[in-house]
Amino acid sequence: MNTDSETTREIINRFHNAFEKHRPEDLDDLIGEGCVLENTTPAPDGARYEGREACLDFWKGIASSASLVFEAEEIWHSEDRGIIRWQLRWGKSPADRVRGVNIMRVRDGKIVEGLGYVKGA
């Protein structure tokens, strides 16, 4: 491991802020080569994206959607790991939301792994 906890904190906070502020361009400097992303859907394992461009394209699509509202419940970091507990809303009804978590790994100041999970029925 070659990432300190403060670097991880900064990268994870910047990553989440890109979604809250709908600024997909802020992700460009955060995603590393060889990144692996496991999405929350489809059940049971989620889609898997491999490589910087595939992960970046997927995350930018979400961050650019003005109809999606992300809100952090908690952001935690230690060494090369970061965890973001979040809530995602897509409508005005109380049922138009889901809670989830991303488990992230940072290496050399870049995100190289993102594993997404949601609370399900």
Automatic annotation (TrEMBL):
- Write down the superkingdom of origin: Bacteria
TM segments?
A: none
SnoaL-like domain location is: 13-113
Going by the UniProt record, its keywords in alphabetical order are: Plasmid
In Swiss-Prot or TrEMBL terms, this protein is called: Nuclear transport factor 2 family protein
Query: Which species is listed as the source?
Result: Paracoccus methylovorus
